[in-house]
Amino acid sequence: MRALAPALPLLAALAVAASARADYVDPWGLPSGSASLRLATQDSIQSGGRVQAIDFATGAVDSLASYLALVLGGVADLLFVELVPGESAHWLRAPEDPVYQNDQPLLVDLGVLPLAAVADMLDDAGDPLPLASFAAAAAGHAYALLQVQRGAEPETTAVKLAITALGDSLVAFDWAWQPNGSREFIPTPAATTSLGALKARY
After folding, report:
1. Helix (H, G, I), strand (E, B) or coil at 130
2. In CA terms, which of 33, 41, 97, 102 is 20 to 30 Å from 69?
């Protein structure tokens, strides 16, 4: 398999590599896995074509809907997109808010970092990291993301991910999800912190 990879088109080689490797297993036992997303071009976004997005609560990649349908469905957490038609740089992007359909600042680039080394979503001073609605996709970089599940308890949960392979039209990554409302990626009490307390803290 390795000997054949250089002869394959880059997209196919990335797809083979992503499917051949085992799913990431979080060392703390958090829900985790590996996934890949195809590039959502501006043409596909604006024309209503199908785009791929992942829902970290289920680990499912949805490619059966348009960008607008994914936004209005309110379950998509992350897309791989071009922001300007035909640009060479590509981006990880949080989808727009399903109610107001405006950008959501939910994502931060942590730089080159092993996924297991990402302990929380706080800076060195203990303050919440500044979030943006998109971040440049870069191989080897780790990212943190807030997942919003409207009406859920808690509504906001934390995700970390690290890019393992990157091509012109595909990004592959490992991920882990903290479902209990904490922004720490280590075991924390799930039932003792209310949503109000989380909002007051963060």
Report:
1. coil
2. 33
